Amino acid sequence: MRLIVFMLAALASGQAGAQSVHRCTDANGQPVFQQAPCPAGTGRPVVIQAPNVVDGSPAGDAMLRAQAQRRAALSEAIASGQVIDGMTDSELRQALGTPTVVNRDVVKGQERQQYVYRYPNGDSRYVYTTGGRVYATQERPAERQKPTRPCHSEREVANVRTSAASITITRDERKRLLDQVKAMEECRQ
Fold first, then answer.
1. How do the domains of the chain map onto residue ranges?
2. Residue 184 phi, psi (nearest 5)
3. Among 20, 26, 71, 118, which has the highest number of CB atoms less than 10 A from its own CB?
């Protein structure tokens, strides 16, 4: 009976994991539980696990729902290769793979990391972490140059000009070809 009372008192205190408890044997051979170590050879320490209690209050329920939603969002983000704030470094690597470069600096005693991901198409993604958690991301698309259309050679211009002079084409076709010659010549200037 003393054991049950003692265990309940230890669990209720919320500090069961922090206290040391010893199971000793008294002079009558009965088990006795105490905080002080047992006399030599008469007992052993007892490990008391912290209670596994779920808060049944509305705030506790809301917290559990929020945690479940966050786990679901993390799983979806990792599966789709996306980054969300609060991800750990290992979750980030699961989502995006190994970064191209990791830059580290220490500001006011706190380490910050910049994970740089460079992609074959020239795009870059920068992910910033502090305390092992993502707090910001930055996307940098590659600068795309407009495809330059090369100017036509003198021979190509001459060929279109000759086609425009043909007697077998319609008036509309001739106008279209002359406009094309004009545009080709402007490109060359």
1. 80-140, 154-188
2. -65, -40
3. 118
> What is the helix (H) or strand (E) element at residue 128, kind and residue range?
strand 124-130
* DSSP 8-state secondary structure symbol assigned to residue 149: P
| Cα–Cα distance measured from residue 61 to residue 79, given in angstroms and rounded to the nearest whole number | 27
Q: What is the pLDDT of residues 15-72, one digit of tens each?
A: 444 467 778 888 887 888 788 888 877 777 776 666 556 656 667 778 888 888 888 8
* Token pair of 139 as six digits: 């996307």
Phi, psi of 91 (to 5 degrees): -65, -40
Among the listed residues 51, 3, 49, 1, the one whose alpha carbon sits nearest the alpha carbon of residue 23:
3
Q: What would be the CATH architecture of the domain defined by 80-140?
A: 2-Layer Sandwich (3.30)
CA distance 115 to 134: 10
Instruction: Output b/e per residue, 7-44; b: 16+ Cβ within 10 A.
Output: eeebeeeeebeeeebbebeeeeeeebbeeeebeeeebe
